[in-house]
Amino acid sequence: MPQQDKLGSGWMVIAAAVFALMGALVKKAGSDFGFGFNELVFWRTAFGLVVLGGLALLRRQDFRTPHWHAHLGRGVAGTLGLMLFFYAIAHLPLATAVTLNYTSSLFLALLSFLFLKEKIAPNMLAGLFLGFVGIVILLRPTFAAGQEWAGLVGLSAGLAAGWAYLQVRELSLLGEPGWRVVFYFCLVATVLSGALATWEGWHPVSSDALPYLLGIGITATVAQLCLTRAYQVGRKFTVASLSYLTVVFSTLLGVWWLGDQIGWQEIAGMAVIIAAGIIGSLVKKTS
Q: Membrane-crossing residues (predicted)?
């Protein structure tokens, strides 16, 4: 039973570390072996598609759904977000790309207000304002270094992810099980990224590159399972707050393994965005 799980919210710490490792592997696969972001998205989602599909078959779960159009919309939005995120990883310090992707929670709140007419509590407004102040601080060194495009792409990844999460919530309200939502996302992402990679041209997979590609798929799948487990057995506010450890782990991996240079402005921006996200999580818990 969930309450007997001694690790509890600690599953999120593992998920955060593994998500950070996935990002580092994406950056290494792109920089060391020349793989494009479409190829990397394909390898990341194809692995999850095979694993989730195989588990569903073993459990004799039903793949049929009356909400295929909603799955398609979520899949396209999620694929776009993942492509933009992987592009940002290739062109920005890992921690900066990851932090920009975590603005998805801010965009989710904003999109919920704009399209679902949900009310925004005063504390959430403060969190949104703080979050966008953090974005400005974080992007100043990026813009100063002439990486305006990469910075805007990274921010757009957060927007696309926020839109995808909005659709995930709608699918949940329609009664779709979580495994089916993730499965159809992987299916759509694998097809779209595979088609784009075919149009651009595939890079050969060498014996040296294969561990990185498999590692991306394995870490993404393991992290997703740990995240799901954390929300099942942990305290929701604690889990949501611990998820931002991905930024911390990404900073450490970026500096120690990838040779990223992180200045005080980037660190300040990350801290402000993390604080804004935690405020948003607290509002959700208390509202």
A: 7-26, 41-58, 70-89, 95-116, 123-143, 149-166, 178-197, 209-227, 239-258, 264-283
- Distance separating alpha carbons of residues 239 and 45, to the nearest angstrom: 24
Q: What is the tens place of the pLDDT at every residue in 183-235?
A: 999 999 999 999 999 999 999 999 999 999 999 999 999 998 898 888 778 87
Q: What is the DSSP string of 202-238?
A: PPP--TTTHHHHHHHHHHHHHHHHHHHHHHHHS-HHH
Please say whether the beta carbons of 191 and 183 come within 8 A: no
The ranges assigned to domains in the chain are: 9-281
CB 270 within 8 A of CB 103: no
pTM of the model: 0.91
Q: What is the pLDDT of residues 254-271, one digit of tens each?
A: 999 999 988 899 999 999
| Residue corresponding to tokens 């995120």 | 85
Residue 17 to residue 29: CA distance in whole angstroms: 18
Q: What is the DSSP letter of 257?
A: T
Do residues 26 and 216 make contact, with C-beta atoms less than 8 angstroms apart?
yes
| Closest listed residue to residue 160, CA positions, set 220, 92, 96, 107 | 107
> What's the rounded Cα separation, in Å, for the pair 127 and 241?
14
